[in-house]
Amino acid sequence: MVGVKFELEEGWHTYWKNPGDAGEGASIEWNLPEGLIASKILWPGPHKIPVEPLMTFGYNNEVVLLTKISLAQDVVFPLDIKAKVGWFTCKDICIPQEGEINLKINQGNKIPTTNSYEIDSYFKSVPTTFNQNYRVEKLDEKFFLQTEIGDGKHYENVYFFPEEYGLTNYVDEQKYEKNLNSFILEVNASDANLNLQTFTGVIEATNNEEPSYFEISYPLTTEESNAEQSIFLLIIFAFIGGLILNIMPCVFPILSIKILRFMEHSENSTIKTYKFGLYYSLGAIMSFLIIAFILIFLKASGESIGWGFQLQYPLVISILFYLFIALGFMFMSNLVFGSQLGQLSSIARVKNESLESFLTGILAVVVASPCTAPFMGSAIGFALLQPGINSIFIFLSLGIGFALPYFILSVKPSLLAFLPKPGAWMETFKQFMAFPMWGSALWLLWVLSGQVDTDTVILVLIGGLLISLSLWLLEKNTTEVRFIQWIVRLISLILLLFSLWIIPTSYSEKETETELVYSEAMLKEYRDSKELIFLNFTADWCITCKVNERVALKTNAVNEIIRKKNIKYIEADWTRKDSIIAKKLEEFGRTGVPLYLLYPSEGEPIILPEILTEDTLINYLSEIK
Amino acid sequence: MKIFLNLLTISLLSGSCFGSTLIDQKAPDFSLFDSYGKEISLNSFEGKKVVIEWTNHGCPFVAKHYKTGNMQSTQEFTIENDAIWLSVISSAPGTQGFVSSDEANELTASREASPSHVLFDPTGRVGKMYNAKTTPHMYIVNKNGVLKYEGAIDDAGGRGFMFKDLLNATNYIKKGLIELSTGNKVSTPVTKPYGCSVKYAS
Prior knowledge:
The complex is a heterodimer.
Chain A: E1 2-7, E2 13-20, E3 27-31, E4 36-38, E5 47-51, E6 54-60, E7 62-67, E8 69-71, E9 79-90, E10 94-105, H1 114-124, E11 128-129, E12 134-139, E13 142-148, E14 157-162, E15 175-178, E16 182-188, E17 198-207, E18 210-219, H2 223-229, H3 231-245, H4 252-266, H5 270-300, H6 314-332, H7 339-344, H8 353-385, H9 388-411, H10 424-432, H11 434-449, H12 454-476, H13 482-501, E19 515-517, H14 520-528, E20 533-538, H15 543-553, H16 556-564, E21 568-573, H17 579-587, E22 595-599, E23 606-607, H18 614-623
Parallel strand pairs in A: 11-18, 19-21, 20-21
Antiparallel strand pairs in A: 1-7, 2-6, 3-9, 4-8, 5-6, 9-10, 12-13, 13-16, 14-17, 15-16, 17-18, 20-22, 22-23
Chain B: H1 2-16, E1 31-34, E2 39-41, E3 50-54, H2 60-67, H3 70-80, E4 84-89, H4 101-110, E5 117-120, H5 125-129, E6 134-135, E7 137-141, E8 147-151, H6 172-182, E9 196-197
Parallel strand pairs in B: 3-4, 4-5
Antiparallel strand pairs in B: 1-2, 1-5, 3-7, 6-9, 7-8
């Protein structure tokens, strides 16, 4: 081991291998006799040296740079070791310096000297591999380094020195947060978007004012490059997805009934039906584009949304439920879907068939929306990760795929020649199509039941009943007497409005409804009824909590399993000090958040690790009984 | 339809703010006095490519680039390619690199340098606007005033710089100018700038 010592005057410094915003680390060019091999420079842990408004990394006053020199073969003593050293000494200005090293090493036993003592002490501050569990996540232009502390040794402070340019911002403060068995470090990403593959560097962990240095390196997922490769594939998939949507139970009945009407028309003239197809396609594609714009807009305004978000709102689900009930009823009854629907909706009191086709296109997209969620959720979710313009293309392709079959049939109704001649069977078929509609309604109700309590579900069911009654009244409203006709219409309108009025809107938009607020009584109640409970102690200011929530707790896969296993998810929010929560934390020997408790139906709760990953969390959740 | 258009603009805007470097964005305009007392603004060069050099003659990194003739040859190449070369000094008064007009002109003459203008930025306002960190720190602005390159002058940075032969290094400015004359893209738009810290007023 050879050490090169740099003694600088007070206030001067020299640099680490990554000098930070300016400067340059030292270089040593060895000139060794045959058979000797020099290692790279072993850099002792660096210090922060701010040079307003910049930040540099290096050593103040004194440093010993170490090099391991090993024997590759037998050598002849004495050994002549020579090196040329170049370095910068800087204060507010920099001075380049050069020096030569000449060493003669004789054969013999190791004798401790002050020099060897100094080398040893500097060798201790050379970073070693970090042997704790850690991970690095990049969220919103910030890196989060999360580490488990196994041996209970805790650090007052931790600082990350990046090895390469373009990874982190050197000047910005790093936020360090200490938990019971883990810590998290928040480091702002660099403005230079170089898309580095790994998060590599050295962490300085201070314990009792004694710093220790560790090397870390963690692979980063580079989202952007992956996404760009598959954009065309995504567009194709979106197109195919759009095609398949046509035969989903939500959409198929509506389309098939519209197509049956082509057959009637086609016996007269072909030009007309082609026009309907065009308007229908326009309506459908435009609706998809509007959805795309809304999603991009929401995303730009900072909302974290994925596809299927529409099914997180009880209001939307309830309205869709009514819609499916009503459509089923129309299929079943003599209320002709379409022109009569035009009468129902205040938007279009029209007999104009082009406009009707356009509205049908919009309607088809609306009724398709619940079906797309479970079916294409991940694909569309991925599309939303794309820059704005790409997700527009994906939605466009989805819309084109969706509209295409209908359009083709409208251009060439003769393709339907294999079907029997129009006749009474069409009415039977139309009535039968009410069942997939009601089936979809049932599914929506099931989704809703996961979000609101039973009473509210019953209320929505009553709304469905009222809507049916209102439609039935309209259908039977064939009396000649004007006055009575209007009274009946008024009654159905009141019924309709009333059914809308009872929809659960009071639920806040963003909270998933499975989330409950902690109280001791609630916990006891669930414990008594032997429910599975996930208790999340969190706080807005707790970085660890927020990162865990984003990468594990609030992912779709985890939500899914919580819903499926009917695990009661309770949040104990400690953002503001709360003595009840503090007491509960104390029970588990904690003085702070995060704390994750998973209660089996009987027995003691399991304490989950402070650092959650989606995989470990799913493991815990699926095994709990 | 109007709402539709508004949404479109919003989405396009949101699409463009993903990267946070200045690259591929309009280079911030500035107006500074040159060593002949003339006020020079970046916008007035629209239609020509502009190379901006942050400099400090006392910095050993800068000094080596001038001593070896590397900086001068890059300047000549730039001027020959009908582009503008601006040397900006952001050293605060009393710090290294801060010079008077006469000293600046004297330096240009003695080093046989050929910048189009030497500009003074003693408050560091423009330097901070461009996030200039080191001397040298180089920028290329294209004909439409869009920033296309930011970083080092060449790939000779890194430890052992003082021992390196600069004339064998890959010169990012020459390369960038050549690439911009045939296309609108620089293959390495961002590199790590190296050198002394810019001596901003603290």
